[in-house]
Amino acid sequence: xxxxxxxxxxxxxxxxxxxxxxxxxxxxxxxxxxxxxxxxxxxxxxxxxxxxxxxxxxxxxxxxxxxxxxxxxxxxxxxxxxxxxxxxxxxxxxxxxxxxxxxxxxxxxxxxxxxxxxxxxxxxxxxxxxxxxxxxxxxxxxxxxxxxxxxxxxxxxxxxxxxxxxxxxxxxxxxxxxxxxxxxxxxxxxxxxxxxxxxxxxxxxxxxxxxxxxxxxxxxxxxxxxxxxxxxxxxxxxxxxxxxxxxxxxxxxxxxxxxxxxxxxxxxxxxxxxxxxxxxxxxxxxxxxxxxxxxxxxxxxxxxxxxxxxxxxxxxxxxxxxxxxxxxxxxxxxxxxxxxxxxxxxxxxxxxxxxxxxxxxxxxxxxxxxxxxxxxxxxxxxxxxxxxxxxxxxxxxxxxxxxxxx
Length: 406
Description:
Blueprint: H1 3-12, H2 16-24, H3 31-38, H4 42-54, E1 58-60, E2 78-80, E3 86-93, E4 96-103, E5 108-115, H5 122-140, E6 144-151, E7 155-156, E8 161-162, H6 176-187, E9 197-201, H7 202-213, E10 222-227, E11 232-238, E12 241-243, H8 273-276, H9 279-285, H10 296-306, H11 311-335, E13 339-344, H12 345-352, H13 354-364, E14 375-377, H14 383-398
Parallel strand pairs: 3-6, 6-9, 10-13, 13-14
Antiparallel strand pairs: 1-2, 3-4, 4-5, 7-8, 10-11, 11-12
Helix pairs in contact: 1-4, 3-4, 5-6, 7-14, 9-10, 9-11, 10-12, 11-13, 12-13
């Protein structure tokens, strides 16, 4: 490295993390944009990009070409290195688990799933999921820099306990982070130690992924509501940052009452979104008995998409949309988000009949009539997995030089 480049890099070393995050989230597609976003000289931005390329995290187009109609000097394009390192992401849900290798940019490189009854001892399924992820890593030959886990429960901070895994047989307060770290240590995955495994609520992590890479990109105050394999969850991004409350327990929207005379909820109340607007509720309203094959989420989405012309299925969809709209309207009144995104079965519902849902929210919320809060389907497949990967990538985004030590 020349002395001039060394000097420029030293001046820009503090910009390595911000620069990588800009490329990671797609906000700096070229070196010119990177220069502008970082507020540094062109030479410094070039040195920073070169260092990130030397670390094996990005690639820089060596022969820039001007786009059609553009003026001035063409800029080098910046890309995530497609053969770069990955992190291991795992998601536990009521019908099994899914694991994935996820690169920078939120790109899923490989994935595998396991279905079946989740045992009452979380250690068993976590060990099985980590073993499946380890097999993916061996097959891929990719370098792994960390691991993240998404679970269908509020996760208390800082200890990482699953406080209310209502749709699993796990005990309340199960130490999922500790068990996940132990499974990682037992698997002895090269590059992954028990110090770099991270855990969070599945809907929170889905919202984080959508905000960085999907339908929530660019929103300042983003509300996410999603029905997983069972139940309903919510998440909130405020001023660009995930809001999890003082101890990780914020936005338990599944326990908003939308039908006071409705079904008993696992929380002890009645008529909560959790039991009135999830896949099991939809199948029941449509008069369908859950089958033995496939998850409840997949069965309900397939029914909605393939048999919507059936009057019973359409009536069930209308019922769930109305219940969901009541819940969202109350949240809009309290939170005043600038965008709402819906995941899981709710994603399929808004894709099927977007106007009905928007009308219910507008009719029931103070602000729905003026301006209209955009309500959009989530755009990422497996967004909770991508969000779990975001937890694992965050130390690298904070300081890309940590890759040298892993």
